[in-house]
């Protein structure tokens, strides 16, 4: 942020200015991958890996920071995993590629990715990350080096980073190809059922959660059994994906990409509750004038669906024990909660692309450091969402329960730091149910 | 857990005390529905489908007589005067003396089981209750005469466990509602009729637990079935299962299952994956359990942590039914005012007379002042106050309970979600209104 925009912020949003200033003063990157002492794990001394790090910065705004702060080899491993997924995504999204061409590319990607010399130059000109595929050889070289350049003893088969990454890649690419093929060969424009929507999210995000968790376990930084907690790791990924799918409604709709399931947005009750309107037949109707209420009820139906993953995410985070892994996992999750709170009952979301403000993001990065604070952040946003819910909304009780569950969860125990803002509460004996000030619950 | 055989192979014969009341009647119906033999002991007879014994429970001879005639082997004691009466002596007579009489009669007649309906209110003194479990100590001073008498009765019931072959258990449901309830819905209806449905005391950030009557009944039957000495093997088995997380309660939120790479539908595949049969079979199996079960996350302060279990004496051990208390709720905590708001909304639509006034949120402190004034005014003119400090306290406090003990030990799982429970309740209410109009 430049000086001029900071000055504007000081005048228009002084509190945000304060947060960003504090972020600049207090937030230190946890490691510097370019430092010579880090070269054995970061690979910064190799031109191919250095190019990969550059690609990471170019292709990811939100993940680059947290990936680079992972400890040991994990930063590099996850960077390469990210680039593989970016490559897949670029192929999947590309509307200029006919299905006959796209299908074999997608379905073979786990092999192509490690074929020395393979590159892909035929991406559409609008694909912003096309350069990664053009220069794929650097990624390929690094993938091939992956398990030989480790700072730990040679791993057994199930713990080999490359095998985990390629196994997940194969599953993701197959799912993507299945859905892309159906969209290209049938006239089915929309995702119909919630189960189908969940499956799609599993393919593109839940599996990534599975893969990352297996990487944590393989690195020895997290428990072995964590990699087997598929339901939890899928919930983590799915929560992020579903949040983005909600927030990006307008952008996706304008590009004729439709991810919301009809089983939710096409419900009769939303029309009835909006003054006796018919159910939506097409997703474009959601941003048509006169349908605002109905669109908001559909949006709230989508948001309840995501909130159901919040408790699983908090459980997952409580199982982690390595700080850099924790931050990597927790920050996107708290950002997702903030995004849900931003979107909920906000009709602007149907009109333009909305995002949480920079200062809010900075504050979340600073605060997402331990399970207790993350639980408090989740509680805060649940409360924001709950405060905006109205009984006219057909999802009202569901929302109320989903938010209530997040807020009434057993609290990670901790001493009480501040007595001033506490209203006394009764506790179970033996000190359980540490109380939390209602003001931030 | 629900699949384990119950302690007695022989079917019990039930006497429901307070079987004409709201909860009692639901218990009777549930017992009849599963083909059990039931009798009712109450002051007045309202239904004529089961043997009825009339009487006041504080008269031990009458209770004994009913036990002998009915041949009951399990007493489910749900009787209590309704909450909110200005008659401490009545509460004491029915809840304390009455319960003592029931206990004495049970022991005298060799009845092996007594299930007592206590109340979550016995631990509420106006302070916030946040995720409290059954270890919460009893109150020094109860909130009001009703709760004082309920707490005392609960104490008597638990103390009677093991006396003369009697096993006892007390359930503490929180905020029971459902068809047949003349308190909760009627109160809201009055407020709505007076055009007060836009008034809200407190900011609705306090979380509250409710219990649909059907779930409460379910818990009673489970407690009755499982009541008896618990074998050491059963306790070991329970201890072992404590390591595994319980599933989340999704009655209202209706979350679909989370697909994983090991358990998912096949989707719009072109060629099925190599292990297609297996992953699809897992998906189609509603009881599928992954090879690595999900761990229960506990701190050392948790009631089921190793440390806490090691500290408990054999009698206190929370892994048994006899001599224990259990909080019972829907497991779906919500903001306190959400429930009234939904019901008001229903009245608005039902009578097509929406209250268009803006929602008016009274801060808790202001609510207190107004309630004091109302109580004083009522005292001055000699009327029952409608708006009291107790109600302000109640509506502004957190009251949410940890029901893991009931889920683990009783095998309790809520059967009807909050949303469905409300739907059934207002449906019943509408039918009642129609009947009243015709009459």
TrEMBL record, chain A:
> What is a single Pfam family found in this protein's UniProt entry?
SQS_PSY
Q: Which cofactor does it need?
A: Mg(2+)
Any one Gene Ontology cellular component term annotated for this protein: endoplasmic reticulum membrane
| E.C. designation(s) | 2.5.1.21
**What function does the entry list?**
Catalyzes the condensation of 2 farnesyl pyrophosphate (FPP) moieties to form squalene.
Q: Which domain of life is it from?
A: Eukaryota
Provide the transmembrane region boundaries. Answer: 325-347
For whether the record's keyword set contains Cytoplasm, the answer is no
* InterPro entries in alphabetical order: Isoprenoid_synthase_dom_sf (IPR008949), Squ/phyt_synthse (IPR002060), Squal_synth-like (IPR006449), Squalene/phytoene_synthase_CS (IPR019845), Trans_IPPS_euk-type (IPR044844), Trans_IPPS_HH (IPR033904)
- Enzyme class, spelled out: transferase
Which family is this protein grouped under? Answer: Belongs to the phytoene/squalene synthase family.
Taxonomic lineage from the root? Eukaryota, Fungi, Dikarya, Basidiomycota, Agaricomycotina
Kindly tell me the pathway this chain contributes to: Terpene metabolism; lanosterol biosynthesis; lanosterol from farnesyl diphosphate: step 1/3
Q: Which UniProt keywords apply?
A: Membrane, Transferase, Transmembrane, Transmembrane helix
Looking up CDD domains in the UniProt record yields: Trans_IPPS_HH
**SUPFAM superfamilies xrefs:** Terpenoid synthases
Can you name the source organism?
Pycnoporus cinnabarinus
| PROSITE patterns for the chain | SQUALEN_PHYTOEN_SYN_1 (PS01044), SQUALEN_PHYTOEN_SYN_2 (PS01045)
Biased-composition ranges, Polar residues, are 416-441
The record's Gene Ontology biological-process terms are: ergosterol biosynthetic process; farnesyl diphosphate metabolic process
Enumerate the catalysed reactions.
2 (2E,6E)-farnesyl diphosphate + NADPH + H(+) = squalene + 2 diphosphate + NADP(+); 2 (2E,6E)-farnesyl diphosphate + NADH + H(+) = squalene + 2 diphosphate + NAD(+)
Q: Molecular function terms in GO for this entry?
A: D-glucose transmembrane transporter activity; squalene synthase [NAD(P)H] activity
Its recorded name reads Squalene synthase
Region annotation Disordered: where it falls in the sequence: 407-441
Automatic annotation (TrEMBL), chain B:
| Pfam families associated with the record | 3Beta_HSD (PF01073)
GO BP term (any one):
steroid biosynthetic process
**Domain named 3-beta hydroxysteroid dehydrogenase/isomerase: which ranges?**
15-228
The record's keywords, sorted A to Z, are:
Oxidoreductase
Named from the GO MF annotations, one term is: oxidoreductase activity, acting on the CH-OH group of donors, NAD or NADP as acceptor
Q: Does the keyword Oxidoreductase apply?
A: yes
Q: Which PANTHER family match?
A: BIFUNCTIONAL POLYMYXIN RESISTANCE PROTEIN ARNA, SHORT CHAIN DEHYDROGENASE_REDUCTASE FAMILY 42E, MEMBER 2
Question: Which family does the entry's similarity section mention?
Answer: Belongs to the 3-beta-HSD family.
The name under which this protein is listed is 3-beta hydroxysteroid dehydrogenase/isomerase domain-containing protein
